[in-house]
Every structure is written in C-alpha cells, then in structure tokens.
Design a protein that fits this description.
This protein is an alpha+beta fold. It is 56% helix and 16% strand. α1 (2-64) runs antiparallel to α4 (166-216). The protein has helices spanning 2-64, 70-82, 117-125, 166-216, 230-280, 286-318, 330-347, 369-387, 440-450, and strands spanning 91-95, 101-104, 129-134, 141-151, 154-164, 326-328, 351-355, 365-367, 392-399, 403-410, 454-459, 465-472.
Length: 478
C-alpha cells in the first residue's frame, strides 16, 4: 500500500508539473517574444527618427546655401562630407539623379550605386525614404535614410545617411537575452513554487485519500494524524470526525442487531415454553392456566411493540414515515396511555402518579393520534425499563400560552452523563443493560419533530430521569 501511495503521489507530481509548467512556459515564451519584438521596434524606430531629423537639418543647410552651378553644389557637398563630425557612427552620402554616389564621408564608396528603395523614393517621389536591410556591395545589414535635394521645385539629387545595424542588433540581443534570463528565472521560481505546492497540498491530499480508502474499506474509527494547517487541517478533522461517527454507528448497529435478536428470542422462548407447558398440562389447574396465559399475553404484547418499533424505524429510514393529521384531544390520548400502563406498572410493583392540568377545558390540537399515543407508550415503557427500580413514575400534562407540555418522570438511577448527548440517537443504548432495541427514543424524536414540537430528556433533580414533550397548540403537521 505504501508503494501504491508513493506511485500515486509521483503520478500526481508529474501531471501537475507537466500541466502547470507547460502552460507557464508557453505564456512566458509568448511574453518574451512580444517584448523582444517591442525592443527591436523601439531601437530601430529611435535610430530612424534620429537619422531622419539629422537629414532634415542637413537639407535645410544645403537649401540655405547659394548655389548657382553644379561645381558650387559639388564643392559644398564635398566639403560637407569631409567635415562630417559623425563619420564614426554613420556615413553621409550625396546621390545624383541617377542614384550614383557623388561624394561620401567614406571616400571609397564614391561612384557606387546602392540601389536601395529609400533612394528611389527620394528621387522619384520627392519624399524621405527609409531602408532597413542588406547593403548590395558589402552584404552588411544597414539602416539608411534618404532626403531629396530640390532646386526650383525640381529634384536635383539626394542626401543619404547610412549606418550599420550591427550595434543596434547587439543591443537588441543583449536586451532579449536579459528578458529571456528573467523569463527563465521566473520559470525556475514557478518550478520551485510548484514543488512547495505539491509538498503542502498534493501529497497531503494523496495521504488523506489513502486514509479515506481505508475507512471506506471497513477500517471504521481510523484516525489520521493531523499535522496540516488551514483547509487541509479542517478536512482531516472532518474526516476523523466522520470516521468516529461511522465507527459509533457501526458499533450501535451491531449492538442493535444483537439486542433485537435477544429481545425477539426472549418473548418467543417464553411463549413457546408456556405454550408447551399448558399443552402438556393434564391437571387443568386454573391458576396455572391463568398464569401461563398471562405470561403469553404479556410477552406477545412486548413482541408486538418491538415489531411496531422496527416497522416505524424502517419507515423512517426509507422516507415512508407519514402522519395522518386530524383534531386530537391530547389530554384524552395521554390519559388513555397512562391508564393502560397503570395496571401493567402495578403488576411490576411500580406506582403511577398522574397530575391533571390545572386549566379548565383542554384545547384541541392538530396531530396524528396513533403516532402520539405511540410516543406516550414508548416513554412510559422506557420509564418502566430504566427507572422501574425507583418504584414510582410521575406523569403530568399542562397547557401554556402556545404549548402543551407533557412530562413523564421516573425515580431510577438516571442517565449517565456520558450517555446524555447520544441518548436520542438510533440504536444507542449506552451503558444500560435494560432490554430494548435502542430506537424507541429516536422514534419519539421523529414523531414529535414532525408535529412541530420538541422532545427533551435528561436527569431530574433529586434523581431519576425526566422526559418532556412540547407540542404547539396550533400548527400544520408534516
């Protein structure tokens, strides 16, 4: 299992790293590419703008010079190129109308024809031409700007600035390398961030998943050591609580099955035993016959009540538990249950005390009389089983402003404090050794709740257990 968990964590790590890093890498490459393109455009645009501004300034100087002949023009152009102060950064050329270099700050290029689009634009369109590309003679990447020279509105030549793009490309390359280094650093940071995330999230989730699988396979009650924080820690606490409750429910269900089996076997054994005894008794002793029939009736009644509880529980579980609502004389129903059990209590040596309401005419409420009577019988039977050793049971009914309060109290040992929070749960019997299925109080809680009321049970002052039912005077039952 340990190897399986490691393989699972390894697979999670691989999938997470592959998915997250591939997405981040693609985004980073696109961002770096766009940024590099922007840098290249920025550098070339700045160089072209600077060269264009300088070319316009030179054209202004030439236009201000008084030129009356070609010889004067050539002399001015030659002197201008020879005194050009930026010859270390760029070349200044004067182009004639045929596109040939007449004079240049680099004397060795004179007489050549560059044949670049910027020259054509200047000579033919009388507009400033810009060119970025390879020089036909040197095969070097250049940036050139050409401005037309005009005389009396006619283009008589062109002034051209040319510079190598090598330094520009080097600067762009340095900037791009820097950008990509930053991108790689960010990728490394994302990689280690993912490793931290996997260690703090993915691996704990895998461990918790394995523990949940153990629980689902039957290891109820298994507790996960909670060394985690925040949401993972809360998840582990919830799973531990779930595991504990499932374990408790499993234990209660096992005890329930064992208890019900015993409870069913006991009355059936008594019924079968007395039936065989009476069948084989030839003395026809009326005392013996009466005693045997009484026991058979008592055990049959107990068996019937138990089967009815199980039937109600089954209906509660599958959602078939419904109420037949009608006007109910709650006092009459309560007194019927008390008088029914009073004789049974007397046979068991338990004294029943009933206190009627001090109110005059008792109000009619809306409810299911059969279900409410079942509630009263369950509580009276519970008082006899768990508190009968006290020898006395008190019952009372009172009406308030908007509630009817019914109280049943015994004087037995009461409920252990450890059992009080769970006493109304299904199957729960706690430390009690009394006979029963453990679902009687759960049925009571369900019926009372569906009537819009509430059911409370606890230890009474002075000893014993007290159960109280609060039913609304006016409400719509479910």
């Amino acid at each position: 299992m340990q190897l399986k968990m490691k393989a699972k964590v390894h697979g999670l790590r691989q999938r997470w790293m592959a998915n997250s890093m591939s997405v981040v890498t693609v985004i980073m490459l696109i961002a770096c590419g766009l940024f590099s393109a922007s840098i290249a455009s920025y550098y070339y645009s700045n160089v072209q703008n600077a060269m264009t501004a300088q070319a316009k300034a030179s054209i202004g100087f030439m236009n201000r010079s008084s030129i009356s002949s070609y010889e004067e023009y050539y002399a001015i152009a030659y002197n201008y190129t020879q005194s050009f102060v930026d010859k270390d950064r760029m070349e200044l050329q004067f182009i004639d109308t045929s596109g040939r270099i007449e004079t240049s700050s680099y004397n060795f290029t004179a007489g050549l024809s560059p044949e670049t689009p910027d020259i054509t634009t200047a000579l033919e369109s009388n507009e400033i031409g810009v060119y970025v590309g390879k020089d036909a003679h040197t095969n070097e990447k250049i940036v050139s700007v050409t401005c037309p020279l005009t005389y009396d509105g006619t283009v008589v030549g062109a002034l051209r600035y040319v510079t190598s793009a090598r330094l520009i490309d080097q600067q762009i390359l340095i900037s791009c390398v820097l950008v990509f280094c930053i991108g790689i650093a960010m990728l490394v940071m994302v990689f280690f961030t993912n490793l931290v995330f996997i260690r703090n999230i993915v691996e704990p989730v895998a461990e918790v998943t394995e523990a949940v699988q153990h629980i689902s396979s039957g290891s109820y009650g298994l507790q996960i050591e909670n060394t985690y924080r925040e949401e993972i820690g809360d998840l582990v606490d919830s799973i531990n609580e779930m595991s504990t409750k499932i374990s408790q429910n499993e234990k209660m269900q096992r005890e329930f099955i064992s208890s019900v089996s015993h409870e069913l076997r006991t009355p059936l054994t008594a019924i079968n035993g007395w039936g065989e005894t009476l069948l084989g008794d030839t003395s026809n002793d009326p005392v013996q016959l009466r005693r045997g029939v009484g026991i058979i009736l008592k055990e049959s009644r107990r068996l019937t009540n138990m089967v009815e509880e199980l039937l109600q529980f089954s209906r509660m579980q599958d959602g078939r538990f419904t109420l037949e609502v009608e006007p109910v004389d709650i006092q009459a129903e309560f007194e019927d249950a008390i008088f029914t059990y009073k004789e049974l209590f007397k046979q068991d040596g338990i004294e029943m005390h009933y206190t009627e309401s001090s109110a005059g005419e008792f109000p009619i409420i809306e409810g299911d009389p059969e279900r409410l009577k079942q509630v009263f019988c369950n509580l009276l039977d519970n008082a006899a089983k768990h508190g009968g050793s006290g020898g006395k049971v008190d019952a009372a009914i009172e009406v308030g402003q908007d509630m009817v309060v019914l109280t049943i109290r015994d004087y037995g040992p009461g409920i252990p404090e450890a059992d009080l929070p769970f006493i109304k749960q299904k199957f729960y019997k706690g430390s009690s050794k009394a006979r029963g299925s453990g679902i009687g109080l759960a049925v009571v809680e369900e019926i009372v709740t569906r009537h819009g009321g509430r059911f409370e049970i606890g230890n009474a002052e002075g000893g014993g257990c007290i159960a109280q039912i609060y039913l609304p005077l006016r409400q719509s039952a479910a």
